[in-house]
């Protein structure tokens, strides 16, 4: 009975995080649809560029979340101490934050959206608070509250941006609405964050260096899952590059859909007693989810191509399953990246950086200029990094994981 109760609680937590992530992504797509229609091509292009910058900047708060979750799971931090270290990280990045608006305005030719660039810079504040709060919930394995925060963070910003577009009909209005929503979410996170968990251990302390390593690792994963679209754009004509971009949507779905498994596994990966079962369980969930997506792409490829792009994307039919394979392989890489982060590996993302370089080098050196050729290259590089991660993980000694308390499942 006790075991079945723990399994039910775990399933409930996984389901909550899955829903929180999925709804947030759906609301993000809704924002894109509204912005494309109401702002026009020029405005939508500017907003898309700035939203992409926000995604890149968000690797820092996500790095904070990952490190805080690991420290709390190991009993090495309590919430207020973790917040203090988050403030130190924010202070160390202040100059970079102040440099963001002019760099964006000049580099992206966004003269009309300077205020929007300022809003992008100011977003890092509430995102860091949310990263801290999400890390606390993740580390304590309170996954339902974590799902609420994820929904308020991602979905709330999307809704705020939509309201800003409708009210002000401008890029600055959209980003101002997103900023306001982010501060509301951060305020809620601060008010609801637990503060009474005692500090248990001096080991496993963290600082700006830990956040930098985690953020760099997450940036590598982000680039690996997005650079192929840019490569396709660079080596192919506009039409096949557009077909590739449509296929990349399927890869994104295969990558994001099972992401909850890596998120909920992180605190257990930080516990040497539960690490092996957590790694095996999350690998099975991700691999199973991706296998179903690949099967769906094989069986219903014609229907999926019409849904993703329409009749003009018929050339995508043959290669669609390979995009699902690529997304699934990166999702499995994420599980093992989190495992490396959980035991504080010195270079957790070295294999992802190598895979990234290999993708670019292979396409350019071999002059690969077809949809099937590029997606096959992506699959090859993703599989290569995954194999190395698995081999590295199997050699991890128990003492390499910082011991400490972790809530039982």
General description of the model:
This protein has 409 residues and is an all-alpha fold. Helices cover 79% and strands 0% of the residues. The chain is built from 16 helices and no strands. The longest helix is centred in the N-terminal third of the chain and has 56 residues, at 2-57. The two termini are 13 Å apart. Mean pLDDT is 80; it is low at 198-203 and 397-409.
Please summarize what this structure is.
This protein is an all-alpha fold and 409 residues long. The chain has helices at 2-57, 59-73, 79-92, 94-107, 114-139, 143-168, 171-192, 208-224, 227-235, 238-256, 259-269, 275-299, 301-308, 320-342, 350-365, 371-394. The longest helix has 56 residues, at 2-57.
What is the ordering of alpha helices and beta strands?
A: HHHHHHHHHHHHHHHH
The share of residues in helices is: over 70%
Structural class estimated from helices and strands: mainly alpha
Tally of helical segments: 16
Unreliable segments (pLDDT under 50, ≥5 consecutive)?
Answer: 198-203, 397-409
Residue share in β-strands = under 5%
Mean pLDDT across the residues is 80
Radius of gyration in whole Å, from Cα? 21 Å
Distance between the termini: 13 Å
Largest sheet: none
Overall outline: globular
Number of beta-strand segments? 0
């Amino acid at each position: 009975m006790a075991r079945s109760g723990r399994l039910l609680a775990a399933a409930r937590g996984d389901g909550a995080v899955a829903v929180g992530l999925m709804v947030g992504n759906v609301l993000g797509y809704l924002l894109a649809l509204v912005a494309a229609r109401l702002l026009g091509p020029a405005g939508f292009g500017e907003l898309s560029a700035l939203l992409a910058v926000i995604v890149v900047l968000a690797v820092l708060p996500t790095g904070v979340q990952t490190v805080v979750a690991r420290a709390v799971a190991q009993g090495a931090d309590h919430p207020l101490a973790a917040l203090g270290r988050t403030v130190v990280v924010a202070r160390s990045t202040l100059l970079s934050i102040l440099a963001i608006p002019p760099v964006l305005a000049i580099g992206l030719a966004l003269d009309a959206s300077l205020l929007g660039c300022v809003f992008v810079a100011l977003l890092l504040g509430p995102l860091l608070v949310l990263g801290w709060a999400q890390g606390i919930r993740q580390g304590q394995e309170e996954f339902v509250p974590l799902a609420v925060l994820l929904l308020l963070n991602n979905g709330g910003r999307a809704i705020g941006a939509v309201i800003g577009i409708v009210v002000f009909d401008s890029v600055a209005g959209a980003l101002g609405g997103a900023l306001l929503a982010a501060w509301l979410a951060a305020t809620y996170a601060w008010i609801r964050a637990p503060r009474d968990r005692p500090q248990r251990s001096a080991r496993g302390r963290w600082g700006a260096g830990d956040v930098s390593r985690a953020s760099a690792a997450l940036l590598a994963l982000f680039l690996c899952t997005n650079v192929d679209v840019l490569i396709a754009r660079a080596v192919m004509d506009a039409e096949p590059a557009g077909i590739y971009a449509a296929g990349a949507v399927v890869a994104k779905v295969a990558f994001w859909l099972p992401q909850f498994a890596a998120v909920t596994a992180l605190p257990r990966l930080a516990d040497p007693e539960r690490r092996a079962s957590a790694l095996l369980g999350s690998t099975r969930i991700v691999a199973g989810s991706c296998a179903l997506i690949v099967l769906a792409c094989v069986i219903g490829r014609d229907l999926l191509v019409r849904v993703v792009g329409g009749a003009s994307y018929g050339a995508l039919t043959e290669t669609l399953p390979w995009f699902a394979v690529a997304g699934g392989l990166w999702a499995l890489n994420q599980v093992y990246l989190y495992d490396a982060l959980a035991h504080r590996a010195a270079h957790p993302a070295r294999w992802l950086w190598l895979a990234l370089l290999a993708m670019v080098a292979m396409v350019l050196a071999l002059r690969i200029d077809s949809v099937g050729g590029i997606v096959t290259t992506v699959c090859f590089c993703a599989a290569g990094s995954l194999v190395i991660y698995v081999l590295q993980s199997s050699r991890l000694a128990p003492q390499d994981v910082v011991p400490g308390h972790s809530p039982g499942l």
